[in-house]
Design brief:
With 260 residues, this protein is α+β, with helices and mostly antiparallel strands. It folds into 2 domains: 75 residues, OB fold (Dihydrolipoamide Acetyltransferase, E2P); 127 residues, Up-down Bundle (de novo design (two linked rop proteins)), CATH 1.20.1440. The protein contains 7 helices and 8 strands; from the N terminus they run E-E-E-E-E-H-H-H-E-E-H-E-H-H-H. Strands 1-2-3-5-4 form a 5-stranded mixed β-barrel. It is elongated, with a radius of gyration of 21 Å. The structure holds zinc ion. Zinc ion binds next to helix 4.
């Protein structure tokens, strides 16, 4: 029987009968796949440790009639600390939910997996009160790398008046999630810009930093609580507008954080 090796993150685990577990994984090599872990419900099963949601695993699979079966498996990282913190858990779930939307079926997803793993790792290290930030950086970078790169360096009003100085250091800046663009303060007075999210110049700088920097640097910045909120609002609205997709973890996050 043909074997394949995959590396992936466990998105979901469900019992199958009394003994087995069914796992849904987001893999680097094959996109989203469903695998059966025979006997994983047993206390002594060698597969038990592989089955936790968020676990990053290496699996050798064999293909049955309807499922892949785990032949061998190694736990690379459990991201265990995510499960002990409701905020981190919720934001990590959101990261994976977004990853699922952008995952290519039956194809290699090397870059997406790398972003997701870094996101989960950074989320597990998040500072108290700043749990939204690693998730926002991760989601914003996923969007930017998948054809939704926002224009945050130039005011949209430049199209109608290039003569003017479109100063992006003057508060407020207007971010429009539906188009992924911004208006400077002057253009907001001058033009009919429509609705959007108010950003301070600091929040705009942070949003640019989040997608312009290398993966290793993109998470290392500090912001005030006010800027953190603006970033989260901008990223969540940009995500839902651009992907036209609902996110169940976002609804749950709204409930526990008390913000829409
Ligand atoms: Zn302008």
């Amino acid at each position: 029987m043909k074997e394949i090796k995959v590396h992936g993150i466990v998105l979901r685990e469900d019992p199958m009968g009394d003994k087995d577990k069914r796992l849904i994984l987001l893999t680097r090599e094959q996109g989203k796949i469903t695998v059966l872990a025979k006997g994983a419900m047993g206390a002594k099963s060698k597969f038990r440790a592989l089955c936790g949601v968020f676990s990053y695993v290496e699996l050798v699979l064999t293909h049955g009639a309807t499922f892949y079966y785990i032949k061998e498996g190694t736990l690379i990282e459990s991201f265990y600390s995510l499960r002990g913190d409701l905020f981190k858990l919720s934001f990590a779930s959101w990261i994976l939910e977004v990853g699922k939307v952008f995952c290519l079926e039956g194809q290699e997803n090397e870059e997406l997996l790398a972003i997701l793993l870094r996101g989960l790792y950074m989320e597990s290290k998040a500072e108290e009160g700043m749990e939204s930030l690693p998730a926002d950086v991760t989601v914003f970078r996923i969007l930017a790398e998948n054809g939704y790169y926002p224009e945050l360096a130039r005011c949209r009003g430049e199209l109608s008046s290039e003569e003017m100085n479109h100063d992006l250091s003057v508060d407020p800046i207007l971010f429009q999630p539906s188009v992924g663009g911004i208006y400077c303060s002057e253009c907001q007075k001058r033009l009919k810009t429509g609705a959007g999210i108010r950003l301070s110049p600091g929040a705009l700088q942070a949003l640019r930093y989040m997608i312009e920097q290398s993966p290793g640097k993109a998470y290392s910045f500090k912001v005030s609580e006010e800027v953190r909120k603006q970033i989260h609002e901008a990223v969540t609205d940009y995500l839902t507008e651009q992907t036209e997709h609902g996110y169940t973890s976002l609804g749950f996050l709204g409930k526990i954080t008390g913000s829409p």
